[in-house]
Amino acid sequence: MVRVKPFAALRPPKGIVTEVAAPPYDVLNSEEAKKMAGEKSLLHITKPEIDFDPIAGEHEQRTYDRAVENFQAWQKKGWLVREDKEKYYVYAQTMGERTQYGIVLCAHTDDYAEGIIKKHELTRKDKEDDRMIHVRIQNANIEPVFFAFKDNAELGAIIAKTASGAPEYKFVDENNFTHTFWVIDDDAVNARITEIFTNDVDAFYVADGHHRTAAAARVGAEKRAQNPAHTGSEEYNYFMAVCFPQSQLAIIDYNRVVKDLNGLSTEDFFKALGEDFVVERKSEKAEIYKPAGLHNFSMYIEGVWYSLTAKPGRYDDSDPIGVLDVTILSNLVLDKILGIKDLRTSDRIDFVGGIRGLGELSRRVDSGEMKVAFALYPVSLQQLINIADTGNIMPPKTTWFEPKLRSGLAIHTLD
CA 238, CA 381: separation in Å to the nearest integer? Predict the structure, then answer.
C-alpha cells in the first residue's frame, strides 16, 4: 500500500494567488515565461533565467543561484506563507464541461524505488539531473507531480464533501481553465485520509511528471546517505503530488507530423499504406476527420483528410504495448514506410498535443513545414494502468494530460 502524509505547505495569500501561481516550468519556453511573468510570479523561481537580460542559460550557476535567492525573497516578502500545521488539500481543475478533483499530499520516495509508485515512460538522465538540482538547491518540491490512483469510495466522499465548501482559491487561467483549491483543516479528516491511503490504495500511477518524481526520489536517497541518524520519517523522504481518482481523468490524443515521405512518391506511399491499412478518403481540409476508435487513424496529406484502419492480424492483441495505436503507427508507418527508427532522436518528426486541435496538424502541413500528419485515438487510463502494472513502458509521446497542474498553489519543503 502507498505511504502518504499531510504537509505544512508554503502557499500564497488568497489575495495574490493569481499573481503568484504559474504554468509548470516545462510548458513555456524562456521567452514565453519572460513575457508572462509579473513581479510576484513563481516563474521567477521555476525559470529564473528570465531575470537576466539577455535571458541566461537554464543550467548556468547564476541561474540556479537566482532561483534560491528568489525563493527566499518570496517568503520574506510574504508572497509565500507557511501553513500553521500539516494538512491535506483538494485541488480541482475544470476544462469545458469536465472537472477533475485531486488530493494534494506527500508521497514517499521509497514507494517509487519499490515500484509502488508506477511509471509508464522512460526518463532521460539529463532531465532528471536538472530537476534534481532544483530540488536540492531549494530543499523543496516547488512543483507537484501528477498521479492517478484506483477509485476509492470513501476518499471520493471526502473529496466531494470538501469541495462542497467555500474554496481557498478559485481563478481562471490564460487558457480559460478554472483552478479551485480547498484546505482541509479538520485533524480527524486528515488522519482518516492517511489511514485510507495506507490501508486501501495499493499503488500510485505517474500520469505527468516522471522526471520530477525520479528527481525527488534521488534527492531523498542522497539525503538519506548523508544522515547517519536516518529513521525514514524525515521530511526529505516525501515529495509533493496531486493524486486524482482514475475515473476523474481523461487522456488527450498526442499526434504526429512528419517532414517527408522518405523519398517515396505520394502514389507509392499510399500503395505501401494499403498493405496494412484500409485507406479511405474522407474530406477536404475544411472538414477535419477525427479517429473513430482504437486502431483507426486520421491522416492529412496534400489538402485531404483520410481514414486509416489497421487490418486484422497486423498487431498483437495479447501484447499490452503492441496493441497500442502509437505502437501500430510507429511499426507499420513511421518505421516500416517512412524509415523513422527512433522517435526520441529523429529530426524528421514532431509531436502535437491534442489540446491544440487537429487544425494544427493541417496548418503545419499546409504551410509546407511538414508533409503528412497523423492523429491518433487517445489512450485510456485503463490501458496506462495495465501497462504500468505489468512493468511495461509506453512508446515516447503517448499520453497528454490537460489541464496542467498550476504551480505555486502549494510548495513542500524538505525540512
Answer: 25
